[in-house]
Amino acid sequence: MGHSLPVKKSILIAAMSTISALHSSAENELRHVVLFKFKDGVAQEEVTKIEKAFAELPKKIDTVQSFEWGTSISLENINDGFTHCFLVTFKDKAGLEVYIPHPEHSAFVALLKPVLDKALVFDYIATK
Protein backbone atom coordinates (compact mmCIF):
# COMPACT_ATOMS: atom_id res chain seq x y z
CA MET A 1 0.00 0.00 0.00
CA GLY A 2 2.95 2.30 0.43
CA HIS A 3 3.25 2.59 -3.36
CA SER A 4 -0.40 3.47 -3.92
CA LEU A 5 0.04 7.25 -3.95
CA PRO A 6 2.98 7.33 -6.41
CA VAL A 7 1.19 4.87 -8.72
CA LYS A 8 -2.01 6.94 -8.64
CA LYS A 9 0.02 10.09 -9.25
CA SER A 10 1.74 8.43 -12.23
CA ILE A 11 -1.60 7.35 -13.69
CA LEU A 12 -2.99 10.85 -13.21
CA ILE A 13 0.04 12.42 -14.91
CA ALA A 14 -0.24 9.95 -17.82
CA ALA A 15 -3.96 10.67 -18.20
CA MET A 16 -3.37 14.43 -18.13
CA SER A 17 -0.63 14.09 -20.76
CA THR A 18 -2.95 12.05 -22.99
CA ILE A 19 -5.76 14.59 -22.63
CA SER A 20 -3.33 17.40 -23.39
CA ALA A 21 -2.06 15.61 -26.51
CA LEU A 22 -5.60 14.93 -27.71
CA HIS A 23 -6.56 18.54 -27.17
CA SER A 24 -3.55 19.92 -29.00
CA SER A 25 -4.03 17.56 -31.94
CA ALA A 26 -7.72 18.46 -32.20
CA GLU A 27 -6.73 22.10 -32.20
CA ASN A 28 -4.66 21.65 -35.37
CA GLU A 29 -7.24 19.67 -37.33
CA LEU A 30 -8.24 20.91 -40.75
CA ARG A 31 -11.93 21.64 -41.26
CA HIS A 32 -13.33 21.42 -44.81
CA VAL A 33 -16.67 23.26 -44.96
CA VAL A 34 -18.75 22.72 -48.09
CA LEU A 35 -22.02 24.51 -48.90
CA PHE A 36 -24.32 23.49 -51.77
CA LYS A 37 -27.06 25.30 -53.64
CA PHE A 38 -28.86 22.94 -55.98
CA LYS A 39 -30.29 23.95 -59.35
CA ASP A 40 -33.94 24.96 -59.41
CA GLY A 41 -36.22 22.05 -60.18
CA VAL A 42 -33.87 19.30 -58.98
CA ALA A 43 -35.98 16.45 -57.62
CA GLN A 44 -35.70 15.60 -53.93
CA GLU A 45 -34.65 12.08 -54.92
CA GLU A 46 -31.58 13.54 -56.66
CA VAL A 47 -30.73 15.67 -53.61
CA THR A 48 -31.11 12.62 -51.36
CA LYS A 49 -28.78 10.67 -53.67
CA ILE A 50 -26.13 13.42 -53.27
CA GLU A 51 -26.57 13.51 -49.48
CA LYS A 52 -26.08 9.74 -49.25
CA ALA A 53 -23.11 9.72 -51.64
CA PHE A 54 -21.34 12.47 -49.68
CA ALA A 55 -22.01 10.64 -46.39
CA GLU A 56 -20.37 7.51 -47.86
CA LEU A 57 -17.04 9.24 -48.60
CA PRO A 58 -15.67 8.95 -45.03
CA LYS A 59 -16.04 5.16 -45.29
CA LYS A 60 -14.07 5.16 -48.55
CA ILE A 61 -11.33 7.72 -47.83
CA ASP A 62 -9.41 6.98 -44.66
CA THR A 63 -7.98 10.46 -44.10
CA VAL A 64 -11.45 11.70 -43.08
CA GLN A 65 -11.47 11.99 -39.27
CA SER A 66 -15.11 13.03 -38.91
CA PHE A 67 -18.07 14.06 -41.00
CA GLU A 68 -21.38 15.78 -40.36
CA TRP A 69 -23.94 17.62 -42.40
CA GLY A 70 -27.26 19.36 -42.23
CA THR A 71 -29.69 21.57 -44.09
CA SER A 72 -30.29 25.25 -43.44
CA ILE A 73 -32.83 26.16 -40.80
CA SER A 74 -31.71 29.78 -40.66
CA LEU A 75 -34.18 32.23 -39.15
CA GLU A 76 -32.29 35.11 -40.77
CA ASN A 77 -32.76 33.79 -44.31
CA ILE A 78 -29.41 35.12 -45.54
CA ASN A 79 -28.02 31.84 -46.80
CA ASP A 80 -27.99 33.05 -50.43
CA GLY A 81 -29.86 29.95 -51.59
CA PHE A 82 -27.38 27.48 -50.06
CA THR A 83 -29.38 24.67 -48.51
CA HIS A 84 -26.77 22.10 -47.43
CA CYS A 85 -23.66 22.34 -45.25
CA PHE A 86 -21.13 19.52 -44.93
CA LEU A 87 -18.26 19.59 -42.43
CA VAL A 88 -15.38 17.19 -43.11
CA THR A 89 -12.52 17.06 -40.61
CA PHE A 90 -8.99 15.90 -41.34
CA LYS A 91 -6.03 15.43 -38.99
CA ASP A 92 -4.12 18.01 -41.01
CA LYS A 93 -3.71 19.56 -44.45
CA ALA A 94 -2.08 16.39 -45.77
CA GLY A 95 -5.35 14.54 -45.16
CA LEU A 96 -7.22 17.02 -47.36
CA GLU A 97 -4.50 16.72 -50.01
CA VAL A 98 -5.23 12.97 -50.20
CA TYR A 99 -9.01 13.51 -50.19
CA ILE A 100 -9.38 16.06 -53.01
CA PRO A 101 -7.82 14.00 -55.86
CA HIS A 102 -9.04 10.65 -54.47
CA PRO A 103 -10.99 8.65 -57.11
CA GLU A 104 -13.99 8.29 -54.77
CA HIS A 105 -14.14 12.07 -54.28
CA SER A 106 -13.80 12.62 -58.03
CA ALA A 107 -16.68 10.19 -58.67
CA PHE A 108 -18.79 12.08 -56.13
CA VAL A 109 -18.05 15.42 -57.82
CA ALA A 110 -19.06 13.94 -61.19
CA LEU A 111 -22.37 12.82 -59.66
CA LEU A 112 -22.91 16.24 -58.09
CA LYS A 113 -22.10 18.57 -60.99
CA PRO A 114 -25.28 18.05 -63.07
CA VAL A 115 -27.53 19.11 -60.17
CA LEU A 116 -25.35 21.78 -58.55
CA ASP A 117 -26.00 25.48 -59.02
CA LYS A 118 -23.29 26.81 -56.69
CA ALA A 119 -20.82 25.54 -54.13
CA LEU A 120 -18.79 27.35 -51.50
CA VAL A 121 -15.79 25.66 -49.94
CA PHE A 122 -13.95 27.04 -46.93
CA ASP A 123 -10.97 25.29 -45.34
CA TYR A 124 -9.40 26.30 -42.04
CA ILE A 125 -7.16 25.02 -39.27
CA ALA A 126 -9.20 24.58 -36.09
CA THR A 127 -8.31 26.91 -33.24
CA LYS A 128 -9.86 26.50 -29.82
DSSP summary: helix tally: 4
Rg (C-alpha, Å): 20 Å
Q: Report strand order across the widest sheet.
A: 2-3-1-4
CATH top level class name: Alpha Beta
Give the averaged pLDDT, no decimals.
87
CATH architecture: 2-Layer Sandwich
What shape does the CA trace take?
globular
Structurally, the number of domains stands at 1
- Helicity, in percent? 40-55%
Question: What is the CA–CA distance across the termini?
Answer: 41 Å
The major sheet is characterized as:
4 strands, antiparallel
CATH fold-level name: Alpha-Beta Plaits
Beta-strand content estimate: 25-35%
Q: Which stretches are low in confidence, meaning pLDDT under 50 for 5 or more residues running? A: 7-24
SSE order:
HEHEEHHE
Structural class: alpha+beta
Give the strand tally: 4
